[in-house]
Design goal:
The chain is α/β, with parallel strands linked by helices. It is built from nine helices and ten strands. Helix content is 38%, strand content 15%.
């Protein structure tokens, strides 16, 4: 089974270094932040580094890589300054992603912060309608969320509403986070097929582009969003192996966001590969 695994890598050392570090841990895809995860100015691009990175991607068996938006980016905030800053970061990040065409940019849809969910969903779609353009070569992924606080994206139906209200919806996909889905109440342990049927019915499996493979420190439906290392949480290693083996999922890239370091991610990747 030719599964593609990756983990979250530090982009501060450059793209070629991220690529090499990913190879060291046994990965063949990777995730990274385009800028500081708490927001702020992005570093200037090193075009020579980017060119070398593009060549490495073309020459090796690498799945599309996944850039992650800052956690502070909230394009449905009721605060217009926060919303505008989020859209500015979003727009800048997508322009930077054009240096590595054909890859993914993942973002947390946002938090309603006192607004009705439907109002927040409309603001997210309005924001996407501002930042997406027809010729862009990046697919933007909406991440499934745990439902902590006023998070949008805690149900597949909410993601579908965002997609339906976005004019260039062909530029959108979904990243399913196993910890978030479990914490939101989707029983991937006892009824994985049922969860995937619900996803297909409400969104369409053709839009599922990536998996964040994480265990959870909390029980089903807790809406807490606390990741655990593989096999050390309430989901468990066997259930996550069933996710990896599932015929509807096994061709997707899997990204670890477990609370460990590069060596720990390498050990998790080796253990998962050996168990398949």
């Amino acid at each position: 089974m030719g599964l593609h695994f990756g983990a979250h890598m530090s982009s501060s050392k450059g793209f070629v270094r991220m690529f090499r570090d990913t190879q060291v841990i046994g990965g063949n895809t990777m995730q990274f932040f385009v800028r500081n995860p708490r927001g702020g100015k992005a570093k200037d691009l090193n075009e020579a580094d980017m060119e070398s990175f593009r060549l490495l991607l073309a020459e090796n068996d690498f799945m599309p890589v996944l850039a992650h938006a800052p956690y502070t980016m909230n394009i449905c905030s009721p605060n217009i300054q926060t919303r505008s800053f989020g859209l500015q970061m979003f727009r800048e990040d997508l322009l930077r992603m054009e240096y590595i065409p054909g890859n993914y940019y993942n973002f947390h849809p946002g938090c309603a912060v006192g607004q009705a969910d439907d109002v927040a969903i409309s603001l997210i779609a309005d924001g996407l309608n501002e930042v997406l353009w027809q010729e862009m070569q990046t697919t933007v992924l909406l991440e499934t969320m745990a439902g902590k606080g006023s998070e949008i994206g805690k149900t597949f139906g909410q993601l579908r509403q965002i997609i339906d209200r976005t004019a260039l919806s062909d530029k959108l996909g979904v990243c399913l986070d196993t910890c978030h889905a479990w914490d939101a109440g989707y029983d991937i342990v006892g009824d994985l097929d049922g969860v995937l049927s619900a996803f297909d019915r409400e969104i369409g499996l053709g839009r599922l582009k990536a998996i964040h493979l994480n265990d959870s420190k909390n029980p089903l439906g807790s809406r807490k969003d606390r990741h655990a290392c593989i096999g050390e949480g309430a989901i468990g290693e066997q259930a996550l192996l069933r996710v990896l083996r599932h015929p509807l999922l096994c061709e997707l890239p899997f990204f670890l966001e477990t609370p460990t370091d590069d060596a720990g991610h390498g050990a998790e990747i080796a253990r998962l590969r050996a168990s398949l």
